[in-house]
């Protein structure tokens, strides 16, 4: 139980950092496939599979909720004030994780170098998504971020929110792609944050918009998980190469993360890059692997 709560906690901390995906952390910590399977069985499994899946997701959800609560209430200001240090930490963590993944998946990677095209595709996908967000935010399309009012929605806008939610959750479960980046590209990130704040303040007029986005998330989760599981089952080596590409592309996404803050800052550069943060990220990965091993042994002993 402690291991799953810990995993959820780590995912939420990653989700709260601009440009970072919780899916990346799930893959680094080695529970990505179990995460996908549990979501799949929660929708489509038999009674025993569904119970097991919901137990796993419940424990993961507890950790995620704790981590996100801490992020929102305590760490948000800290993130904004130290975004370059934090971005450097996650670059270090991601950089150090790639050799771990290659080492643990040797038989599916070594000798199958024809699949490197999927690494290039994965890298280009993340870079293209991040670059598109920059184009939209810096151009005239930036007005999209305030064009949707969750309280007053046309049928077309409800459908648009549904599609946005489906796309964002698909990105979120893929290592390397940030769901918030997709919401920014669709122009609904700011309205979504505003609607959630209004709902917390007991303004229930925003419920239709939140429901449209929420149903899109549920639909996207069901479809994307099914697709990713099939791809992993039938094309595991190709998917590994692509996931490594997504993680390589996340270097660019993380570097551009400071531009997505409420008060945008310049991207991470050689001048703002922190060597100390990078080394700390490497050490954090080693620490996470150590904690994971300890908790796994503790669970097995029981």
From TrEMBL:
This is DUF368 domain-containing protein. The chain crosses the membrane at residues 6-32, 53-76, 82-101, 113-132, 152-174, 181-200, 206-228, 240-261, 273-295. The keyword Repressor does not apply. It comes from the Bacteria. It holds the Pfam family VCA0040-like. Keywords: Membrane, Transmembrane, Transmembrane helix. The keyword Transmembrane applies.
